[in-house]
Amino acid sequence: MRALDRDVVLDRVQPMDAVVAASLAASRVRTLLLGGFGALALALAAVGVYGLVSYTVARRTHEIGVRMALGAGRGRVLGMVLGQGMARVAAGLALGLAASWAAGRLVAGQLYEVSPADPLTYIAVPLLLAAVALLANWLPARRATRIDPLAALHAE
Question: pTM for the full model?
Answer without folding.
Answer: 0.71
